[in-house]
Specification:
The chain has helices at 45-48, 70-74; strands spanning 4-9, 16-21, 26-30, 52-54, 59-62, 66-67. The chain is mainly beta and 76 residues long. The longest helix is centred in the last third of the chain and has 5 residues, at 70-74. The two termini are 16 Å apart.
């Protein structure tokens, strides 16, 4: 099962994150295309900066229970 262990905002472009996975890999992940519907809230830069790792779910999240499946981020 793929899980994210650490997340950082990529400072040079909106909608990009640097994610460390439990596989030992680090990937630059493009979140922007996924930001629609319920995940539209992180388009706001202030919200986007609040990204964190939800260790229970093993993925990234934002306040308000907004999650993205870690498999989706690992295999875009």
């Amino acid at each position: 099962m793929i899980e994210i262990t650490k997340v950082r905002i990529f400072p040079l472009a909106d909608g990009f994150l640097i994610c460390d996975f439990n596989t030992g890999e680090t990937k630059l992940v493009v979140i922007r295309p996924s930001m629609k519907g319920i995940l539209e809230k992180p388009k706001d830069p202030d919200c986007f900066k609040k990204v964190y790792v939800d260790s229970d779910a093993g993925t990234i999240a934002w306040p308000g229970e907004l999650h993205i499946d870690p498999e989706t981020l690992y295999n875009p």
